[in-house]
Write a structure and sequence with these properties.
Layout: H1 9-32, H2 36-44, H3 47-50, H4 55-71, H5 75-91, H6 98-121, H7 125-138, H8 144-156, H9 160-172, E1 180-186, E2 192-195, H10 197-202, E3 209-216, H11 221-234, H12 238-251, H13 256-268, H14 272-285, H15 290-302, H16 306-319, H17 324-335, H18 338-346, H19 352-382, H20 387-400, H21 403-415
Antiparallel strand pairs: 1-2, 1-3
Length: about 425
């Protein structure tokens, strides 16, 4: 008669645990030798066994998976595995791998961001956006910048629904993207340079630097709100677009950027009067902004009020004499009446009265040309290579018979390859 043999249950468990430990150690050696394919195959074969094992082995399993996937540049799988390992350890009071996981995830995050930059450069915007979101999700509080960049990539890729979701999340986070920048002037060169926060403090003790200053970069919130609104416009949801901007202005009533965002929305919707009203409101809050006056000049000219448009362009030039577009638009505004004069001249007959009228109109036309000349000449003084200004001057001098200046402009254009 055979004797019944009983194997203690605890012995079976011990052998099972020993086996898991041994197998995981073998995978660890394969990872150390960089045989990642074999390591992954061997690790995956343990999955069903590990699921019901001790938590420390589950954490080790996920840790090894993260290392393997990270080495293979499968960022999503790596981050997921590392997150699982860290969560198991955190929730169960041990931290064997936590410090190394944090270090590895920081390195992988940098690699993922660099890969996203590469994908953006190659116009693979969907892939770039996905990588940036992975990095954002690692630490949402610290990595909000990457949510912003992910939204930009989604827009570039035409995935407006996804971009809208990202921008809305940024808005809900009150994200501004604003950071403090530090500057100082080199005493020897007189050039202002940007400094790190540490050097900003240290260099104050050095005589080689002076004129230290710190400033916050411009908030990205107006741009975010604008993009939300523009996506709504693209989706034919104009009411939502207007509502998004109005909500933002309630929170930031003094933000000129939001006023301009709303103004730009109305110009896209074809409401030029509302655009002009908002531009005037922006000027009240930022009276020295030449772009505001320039834009008002454009809209006012389109509405037919040349005198007021001229005053806006002249104010824009006064505030920023280097802004070429103000000169060009002012000159174009002055010359805008010329086609009407030519039409009247061509409609006249050969009677004595018509000839007198013709001469009067001819003088008016020349008066417009002569009025535009100093505006364009001022532009060529600050921007000698401005082909549009030089060409217009050449045409004016040719029309009024100023041969010397016509030749001068012609030679300048030829020297520029025109």
């Amino acid at each position: 008669m055979f004797k019944k043999t009983f194997i203690p249950f605890i012995l079976i468990l011990s052998l099972s645990v020993y086996g898991q430990k041994k197998e995981l150690k073998a995978v660890d050696k394969l990872v150390a030798s960089q045989d990642y394919d074999t390591a992954l195959n061997q690790l995956l074969s343990l999955e069903s066994v590990i699921d019901g094992s001790e938590l420390k082995y589950q954490a080790q399993y996920q840790f090894l998976a993260g290392k393997i996937y990270g080495a293979q540049k499968d960022f999503k799988a790596a981050f997921t595995a590392f997150d699982s390992a860290r969560e198991i350890e955190s929730e169960n009071g041990f931290s064997k791998h936590t410090a190394e996981i944090d270090k590895l995830m920081n390195g992988l995050s940098l690699e993922a961001v660099n890969k996203a930059i590469e994908e953006n450069q190659n116009e693979n915007y969907a892939e770039a956006s996905e990588l940036l979101i992975l990095v954002y999700n690692i630490d949402k509080e610290k990595n909000a910048d990457y949510l912003y960049y992910a939204a930009s990539s989604a827009v570039n890729g035409g995935n407006y629904d996804q971009a809208l979701a990202y921008y809305q999340e940024l808005r809900d986070l009150d994200y501004t993207g604003s950071v403090e920048k530090f500057y100082a002037t080199e005493t020897e060169t007189g050039q202002e340079v940007e400094l790190s926060a540490e050097n900003y403090v240290l260099f104050k003790k050095l005589k080689e630097y002076s004129s230290f200053r710190a400033e916050m970069t411009e908030s990205k919130l107006p741009e975010i709100i604008k993009n939300i609104a523009l996506i709504y416009v693209q989706q034919k949801q104009n009411d939502l677009a207007i509502g998004a901007i109005k909500d933002a202005r309630v929170v930031n009533p003094l933000d000129v950027g939001l006023i301009l965002t709303e103004a730009n929305l109305y110009i896209q919707l074809g409401d030029k009067q509302k655009f002009a009203d908002l531009m005037k409101e922006a000027i009240e809050k930022d009276p020295n902004n030449h772009i505001l006056y320039f834009n008002l000049g454009v809209i006012t000219a389109e509405q037919g009020d040349r005198a007021k448009a001229r005053s806006y362009y002249e104010r824009a030039i006064e505030l920023d004499p280097s802004y070429a577009a103000s000169y060009l638009n002012l000159a174009a505004l002055i010359l805008d009446g010329e086609p009407e004069l030519v039409e009247k001249m061509n409609s006249l007959g050969n009677s004595r009265a018509d000839n007198i009228k013709y001469e009067q109109l001819q003088k008016q036309r020349e008066g417009l040309f002569l009025e535009a000349v100093p505006v364009l000449e001022n532009l060529t003084e600050i921007d000698p290579l401005n082909v549009e200004a030089l060409t217009t001057l050449k045409n004016i001098f040719g029309t009024i018979g100023d041969a010397a200046n016509f030749k001068k402009m012609k030679e300048k254009l030829e020297s520029l390859g025109q």
